[in-house]
Amino acid sequence: MKGKISSDLIRGNTDTIVLGILRTTDSYGYEIYKKIIEKSEGEYELKEATLYSSFRRLEKEGCISSYWGDETQGGRRKYYKITSAGETLYERNKADWEFTKNIINKLL
Amino acid sequence: MIEKVQSYVHNIFEGYQESQQLNDLKEEITANLLARIEESIANGKTEKEAFQMAIKELGDISEIAEEISLNKKYEVIDEMFNRNPLDKKTALGFTVATGVLLFGIITGLIVYFQMGSLFLAISSLFPFATISIAAFVYLGLVQETVYEYGMKKLRALLYAIATALLIGGIFISIIVYLERMGLKGRIESLQEIIAFHNGPLFMAVSVLIPFVIPAICLFVYLGLTEKDRRKPNVLTEYYRTVHHANSKEMMVYGKLAGALWVFSLGIFIVLGLLWTWKLSWIVFIFTIGFQVLLEAYYSNKKSHISI
Questions:
Q1: b/e for A75-106, b at 16 or more Cβ within 10 A?
Q2: Cβ–Cβ of B28/A30 closer than 8 Å?
Q3: How close A2 gets to chain B, by Cα (Å)?
Q4: How many domains would you assign to chain B?
Q5: Which InterPro entries match (chain B) (predicted)?
Q6: ipTM for the predicted complex
Q7: How far is B38 from chain A (nearest CA, A)?
């Protein structure tokens, strides 16, 4: 039986997923979106709107910072960059997830 | 295609409070939608299909727009209601200054009605008025408001000193004039005054000059070195609409005002030397008039855009 994806569970981790992508390189909305789809091998359908909320939340908390790209054609892109607070949050969330995963594996 | 996407995004956010944040979000979304559409077209989709797919994938944006819009509203409400109340010291200062001024006015009136002498009345008003008005200037400038930070104490003190000099000078010259005229409040006839007043007027002006010139120089110096005290939230509001045009404008204004005073000082000296000191000071009255006009012109221009 093929499993169904639990969107709620993933949505709760959107911020961490975004941080994980920004750890490798600065990026903008659509590129981040593509990378997430790619990483999930097409299993996870994410809406762009979810990303915008996540960017705003992370930026407010000082986990990412943003700057405008210098594209002239087709509007400037807003790039995001992870901060050291963001790195810390990522590490902590990842450790928490490993811990939770183990427990749930034991329980289910 | 760019226009199509822009107008689509614009329509999504129709009805939300305009703000810098919202405009940034719109621009960000537009750029991302365009990137996606471009890629779809490169993969062989038609423009129409690509556009439809992109907006389908966008999802529900209203939540975040709502949040931004709400923040903006809070900001506005904050500005409207969160006026910083005066701190106790400043309030006390204003009260004392008002008391001093009132005391001076009442004393002046009593003296005038008791002794019938305008000269004595003005003389008794003079110290109270000078001190209290200088105090008002000082307190007003160091006071932090919703839109501006308070001025530095030393700078405000210089403004207060310049004001005191100017007002003190005017008072003293009026006192000198009245004393010389010996009017004592009773004017017999206009002819009498005109026939008699050249000497006293000359004295009054010569007394005025040493006060007024340093005061005006101080004002010009302070005006030209004035720093922007507006708060960041006011500034972003301001730059968003005016960009850089206005800072340039203010620089032009500062230079014009400076030039105006330098010219008038020059004319004053030349007229005084070549013609008569008695009348050359009138130049300054014109200068003040021009300065006020200049100020009115620029502040009018400013208020149009920024508020």
A1: bbbbbbebbeebeebbeebeeeeeeeeeeeee
A2: no
A3: 25
A4: 3
A5: Perm_prefix_1
A6: 0.85
A7: 10
Query: Are B73 and B114 part of one and the same domain?
Result: no
Same domain, B112 and B63: no
Residues B48 and B137 in one domain: no
- B70 Cα to chain A: minimum distance (Å): 14
Domain boundary among B225, B255, B290: B225
Name the class of domain A7-107.
Answer: mainly alpha
d(CA B167, CA B177): 15
Please tell me the distance in Å from B32's CA to the nearest CA on chain A: 5
Q: Which among A47, A56, A76 is the nearest to B31, CB-wise?
A: A76
HEC per residue, B54-87 = HHHHHCCCHHHHHHHHHHHHHHHHHHHHCCCCCC
Nearest chain A residue (CA) to B5: A74
Considering the domain architecture, whether residues B102 and B188 belong to the same structural domain is answered as: yes
Contacts A77 to B, Cβ<8 Å: 28, 31-32, 35
For residue B30, list chain A residues with Cβ-Cβ distance below 8 A: 75
Give, for all 307 residues of chain B, the pLDDT tens digit.
778 888 888 888 877 777 777 888 888 888 888 888 888 899 888 888 888 888 888 877 777 777 777 776 666 666 556 555 667 788 888 899 999 999 999 998 888 888 877 788 888 888 999 999 899 889 888 887 766 777 888 888 999 999 999 999 988 888 888 887 765 445 566 666 666 667 777 888 888 888 888 898 888 888 888 877 776 655 555 555 554 456 677 778 888 888 888 888 888 888 877 777 777 788 888 888 888 888 888 777 655 544 4
Region label for B235, one of left (φ > 0), alpha (ψ between -120 and 50) or beta (otherwise):
alpha
Pick from A52, A74, A75: CB nearest B61: A52
